């Protein structure tokens, strides 16, 4: 790891992208092929901005300037979440059946100038039984990050797409500016489009493992260590070999497993706990090396890679290899004052900005800096964390008002007063102040914080808390004013937990006993939202410990995109460290044990995979429209009936309750944030209750992301092996990036991980990176 830090000047230069990361798809054997060509009847047509030149049966050149001085027709006049338009080439297809083929190939010569991350969007339309694009415009679109000044053949796995009646394909580009607003040009030459049938199609759907499903980075010494192969595998035993000497250290019989997920063969080597670097050998197949050791042995090398991604997302700062100083003309205004709303980190694959997400990333950076023993890495994490603090400070307008978010999908010209300026939202919502208070007070208590900064953070955290509490008493549980604020789905239960954490931290830094009274009040409110009596299940057991969204117990707390499950655990942990009565301590600890037991209960529905289920759902939750609409954004009325369909795809555990392995979701899909939030919660509860099973449950979620999933694929770009390009359309590929996560197809409850890059499931997201670091810090500290 020190070599990596030295090579990148302590991560002030981005880690180089592996050159052969997509070699698996490139090397497949083609056994049938068919050209896709224009005809006299159906020719390539241009639409929107830019131009289409050099048109032939076999291809075209698509061109556009890097920006325009007007918004495209139909785009919002304020430029919210848009670039400078789109340039597109499309080809009508005569209802052709492409089911015989499972891959598309095309050659692109990229000749762009001053374009940050040139890319191209492929789209495909099917008018058969299942329509694509789907109603949310997620399925059927794929964004490829191109290599400039390079001609390359790109391959696209379409094996799980409906394609029995193809009516159109298209290639387009979202025009989104240039490097430092230097005049530039987008230009790509595309030709030789073909349909292909390959010998070994990469699976993208279902629980059956592709090759050997194992944790690419490794396993903790005393946890359950399981790898998974298809039930069709003919081997009856497997070996663990020393990666250096190639000596066999363990031979074991393979176990057969049949359960609700399907039929599998299980490679269980849990009883081998000797630290070292090993490989799994199964017949003529052998895995890449992985570690057996402590949590720190396994995960510490992922930290600089995730930091690399976070650094690459810096806003307002020139990142060598991506962009110059940016977004100085994204501005926020309040009471005659104006600031440039740049700083912190871009939120995702686009260039939007969220104060709360940057604040949560800041907290994670200070926590991991405090947890790691590597001095070089700790200092670099501390530096990045201070970049986040700077953003929090500069966006404070006083009296509880903060510049909170901005919807930006373009590189602007940095000149205030021109047409491409963006206006950030400014709010004084009490929830944001409670959350900011808890974050800043927590950072102030990390041992690596200097005294001057510690004092500043303590003063701000107390100030934010007092402002929030005053406003809260006037309008309890006030909702965010706009859905684009990423705390919009906050329930009363989560709200209560946040107040407990903030008040507890204020007590820790002031020792003022008035904060203890607030902790007691809102801790009691929080546990009033918890199931204490218990649901009687079909198997005769009683399930309790889970939280509802409020004290009415009508809708259970679960997450489908934005996820802050860990706040329950933080509330328990914070409250139980304070000087409270023995009676309260006993009650709260009993409730904490119930909550921990609930988290462990969710494990069994996904075995043999380590991914935790998303939670328990009641069949009546879709009747609570107010709750439903804040949980599920950008939906139509069909979502209310689809809710029932999705529940029935899960596991019914009682007359009115179901477990969903993946969340109920609609437009926003991908569960990295959901499982990592739960992992963070499990790790905190494991430490609080001295429960190693909960610690291992947290660790298991990291294993799922780094390869121990049905696709034998690491979701972290540049870590583990067999990773794919993700949806990072603005800044391009970055080592350490994490996507929103594995999704499901339609209303199913099985994993779906297509090669297609699109929001939200494949979109890189600062939130997933934040929760990764938070979970690792809890495991290794």
From TrEMBL:
Residues 305-726 form the Glycoside hydrolase family domain. Keywords: Carbohydrate metabolism, Polysaccharide degradation. It comes from the Bacteria. It comes from Companilactobacillus kimchii DSM 13961 = JCM 10707. Residues 216-284 form the Cellulase Ig-like domain. The keyword NAD does not apply. Belongs to the glycosyl hydrolase 9 (cellulase E) family. This is Cellulase Ig-like domain-containing protein. The keyword Metal-binding does not apply.
């Amino acid at each position: 790891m020190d070599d990596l830090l030295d090579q990148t000047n302590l991560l002030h230069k981005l880690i180089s992208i592996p050159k052969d990361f997509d070699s698996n798809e490139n090397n497949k054997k083609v056994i049938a092929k068919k050209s896709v060509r224009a005809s006299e009847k159906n020719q390539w047509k241009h639409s929107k901005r830019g131009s289409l030149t050099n048109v032939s049966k076999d291809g075209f050149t698509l061109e556009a300037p890097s920006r325009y001085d007007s918004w495209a027709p139909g785009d919002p006049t304020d430029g919210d979440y848009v670039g400078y338009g789109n340039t597109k080439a499309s080809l009508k297809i005569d209802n052709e059946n492409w089911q015989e083929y499972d891959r598309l190939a095309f050659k692109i010569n990229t000749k762009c100038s001053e374009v940050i991350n040139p890319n191209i969007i492929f789209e495909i339309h099917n008018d058969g039984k299942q329509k694509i694009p789907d109603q949310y415009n997620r399925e059927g679109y794929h964004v490829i990050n191109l290599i400039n000044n390079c001609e390359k053949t790109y391959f696209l796995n379409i094996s799980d797409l409906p394609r029995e009646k193809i009516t159109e394909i298209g290639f387009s580009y979202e025009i989104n500016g240039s490097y430092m607003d230097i005049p530039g040009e987008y230009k790509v030459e595309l030709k030789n489009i073909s349909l292909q049938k390959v010998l070994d199609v990469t699976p993208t759907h279902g629980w059956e493992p592709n090759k050997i499903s194992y944790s690419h980075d490794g396993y903790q010494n005393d946890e359950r260590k399981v790898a998974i192969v298809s039930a069709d595998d003919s081997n009856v035993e497997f070996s663990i070999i020393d990666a250096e000497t190639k000596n066999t250290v363990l031979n074991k019989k393979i176990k057969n497993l049949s359960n609700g997920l399907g039929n599998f063969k299980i490679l269980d080597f849990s009883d081998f706990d000797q630290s070292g670097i090993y490989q799994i050998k199964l017949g003529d197949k052998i895995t890449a090396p992985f570690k057996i050791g402590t949590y720190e042995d396994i995960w510490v090398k992922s930290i600089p890679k995730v930091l690399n991604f976070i650094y690459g997302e810096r806003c307002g700062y020139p990142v060598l290899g991506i962009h110059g100083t940016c977004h100085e003309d994204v501005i926020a205004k309040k009471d005659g004052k104006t600031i440039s709303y740049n700083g912190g980190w871009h939120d995702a694959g686009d260039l939007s900005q969220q104060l709360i997400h940057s604040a949560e990333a800041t907290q994670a950076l200070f926590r991991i800096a405090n947890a790691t023993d590597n001095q070089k890495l700790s200092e670099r994490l501390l530096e990045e964390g201070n970049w986040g603090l700077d953003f929090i400070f500069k966006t404070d307008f006083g009296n509880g008002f903060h510049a909170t978010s901005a919807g930006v999908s373009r590189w602007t010209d940095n000149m205030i007063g021109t047409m491409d300026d963006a206006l950030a939202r400014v709010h004084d919502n009490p929830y944001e102040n409670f959350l900011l208070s808890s974050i800043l007070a927590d950072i102030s208590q990390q041992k690596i914080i200097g005294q001057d900064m510690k004092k500043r953070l303590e003063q701000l955290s107390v100030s934010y808390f007092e402002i929030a509490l005053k406003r809260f008493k006037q309008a309890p549980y006030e909702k965010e004013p706009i859905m684009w604020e990423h705390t919009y789905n906050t329930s009363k239960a989560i709200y209560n937990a946040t107040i407990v954490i903030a008040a507890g931290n204020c007590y820790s830094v002031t020792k003022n006993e008035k904060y203890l009274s607030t902790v007691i009040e809102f801790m009691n409110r929080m546990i009033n939202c918890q199931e204490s009596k218990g649901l009687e299940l079909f198997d005769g057991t009683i399930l309790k410990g889970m939280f509802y969204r409020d004290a009415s117990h009508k809708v259970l707390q679960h997450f489908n995109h934005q996820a802050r499950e860990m706040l329950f655990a933080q509330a328990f942990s914070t409250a139980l460290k304070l000087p409270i009565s023995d009676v309260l301590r006993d009650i709260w600890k009993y409730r904490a044990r119930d909550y921990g037991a609930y988290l462990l209960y969710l494990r069994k529905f996904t075995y043999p995979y380590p991914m935790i289920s998303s939670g328990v759902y009641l069949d009546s939750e879709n009747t609570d429209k107010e709750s439903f609409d804040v949980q599920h954004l950008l939906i139509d009325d069909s979502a209310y009936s689809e809710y029932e369909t999705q529940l029935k795809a899960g596991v019914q555990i009682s007359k009115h309750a179901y477990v969903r392995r993946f969340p109920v979701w609609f437009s926003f899909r991908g569960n990295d944030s959901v499982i990592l939030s739960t992992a963070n919660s499990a790790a905190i509860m494991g430490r609080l209750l001295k429960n190693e099973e909960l610690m291992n449950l947290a660790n298991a979620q990291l294993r799922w992301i780094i390869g121990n999933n049905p696709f034998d694929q690491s979701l972290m770009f540049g870590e583990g092996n067999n990773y794919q390009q993700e949806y990072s359309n603005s800044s391009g590929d970055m080592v350490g990036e994490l996507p929103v996560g594995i999704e499901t197809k339609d209303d199913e409850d099985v994993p779906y991980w297509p090669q297609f890059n699109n929001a939200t499931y494949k979109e890189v997201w600062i939130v997933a990176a934040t929760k990764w670091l938070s979970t690792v810090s809890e495991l290794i500290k």
